[in-house]
Amino acid sequence: MDRKAKDAMTRAQEVEKLVGDAGFLRYHEYYVKTREFNAFDVLRYAEYEIRHSNVMAWLLDPGETHGIGRGFLEWFLRRARLPGKLPGRIVRGDGGQAVRVERELYHVDVVIFLESDQGRHVVAVENKPSRALPEHYEQTRAHLERLRPKYSGHRRHGVLLSTSRKGIEGEDRHPKDAIAHVSWRDVGRQIKTMHDEGAFGQKEVAAFIRQYLVAVGRLIGPEDSDADYFRKLLDDHHSLLKDMFGVLGDEGGEQEIRAMVPECHAHYRDTVVRLARDFGQEPGRLRDEVRDLLTSRGIETTIWGPWLNWELEAAQALGIPWCCRWQLSFEYRQISVLLEIPARCRKKEAMKDLLTFMHETPVDRRRRDRYPMKPKDFGYFNVYQHRLVGDEILSGTSTEAVTESVLHAVTDFLDAEDSDYTRINDYFRCLAFRAKAASPAQAEEAK
């Protein structure tokens, strides 16, 4: 609507229309929440799968320090509706039942053991902080198969935990191993309900839960029906925000923008300034700037939407050309770098051997959170991921300053001797090394 000039509308009316927009009110709520202290943000734990699995295991274990006993465990087992295999008396803990919860047991995210005189059961939970995909179910079935010989006296059950509202139809009736599904959206609602009811009695625990609920909210993202509300907000108020962003680069620009917001809406002034900064981030433009930088360094890239891709240096020598690719993802508020392997690569056996080796020999044992080694969306296996540039840089005061900072961050990532990029490339070059292929000069130098 706002793309064309609106001569009949004054600047004051445009500002009034902005602060009355439902999308702006939602943005304001998000912005205010993110400015509050949150331990997950300080530790940079909010986005990592492993941290959410840790909290899930803590909540599911009745003997842990949360003080809710079996409350969350029983809700989770009921919600999973394990297809006729888990009797109600087992869920309720009848018969003096013992519960044990393990993390990363045989590579399973969370494993729940339920044992009593009424039966022995083991529940394997695969945690995916993304939408449910067929390969996630297959991964959960592989977990059950791995547990079969080790716990032959137990009934085995599989649960996929994802951000999808519902699981994939039919997977809970699979002829081999039926896999139940639980949504992170439902998990968040249940934790909030228990918190609001005062189940987490200790004030320290309740404070932790309040902060964790913010992290869960970021994990699941906005509702599917309005997931693109932020882009719509920018589009609907384009000319106003464009003018405000231009003002930001001037001396005293922030104060000038605040002065545009009338006193009756003074509590929105910081949010309007923040929105003007976000407007100027322009992910597409930054993607093109970074592409020019990579091209100048001889790196051939391809563009797919907000993603910039290029081939892993050692892929050719490993005999798997274009089966390993780097990816820069350009979004509002962050630029992430990933290393991915397509699950359907033509060199299927080679990729299987490579992934097995990487599981057994991690690239960097100190930073496992950056090396998830997990399947992800669109049939790709996520080997590495890291937020390269955050909102603190992208919401800078001018286009030039933001661009310079982003290019510096990318250059540092590519060139620094201790960077993950250097470490990963060295790792794969070692895998591809063949002694016979070394030149006489290299052999002499090695001596």
Any overview of this molecule?
By secondary structure, the chain is an alpha+beta fold. The protein has 19 helices and 11 strands. The strands form 2 sheets. The chain has a 6-stranded antiparallel β-sheet. Strands 1-2-3-4-5 form a 5-stranded mixed β-sheet, with helices on both faces. A hairpin with a 2-residue loop joins strand 8 and strand 9. Helix 2 (22-35) crosses helix 13, helix 8 packs antiparallel against helix 9 and helix 14 crosses helix 17. The radius of gyration is 26 Å and the shape is globular. It starts with 10 loop residues before the first helix and ends with a helix. The model is unreliable at 1-8 (pLDDT under 50).
Keywords:
447 residues; alpha+beta; 6-stranded antiparallel sheet; globular; disordered N terminus
Order of secondary-structure elements: HHHHHHEEEHEEHHHHHHHEEEEHEEHHHH
Tally of helical segments: 19
Taking the alpha carbons of the first and last residues, their distance comes to 71 Å
The portion of residues forming beta strands comes to: 15-25%
Bin the helical content.
Answer: 40-55%
Structural class: alpha+beta
User: Which strand order does the major sheet show?
Assistant: 6-7-8-9-11-10
Average pLDDT taken over every residue = 83
Which overall shape is indicated by the principal axes computed on the Cα atoms?
A: globular
Biggest β-sheet strands, sense, barrel: 6 strands, antiparallel
Low-pLDDT parts are 1-8
Please tell me how large the radius of gyration is.
26 Å
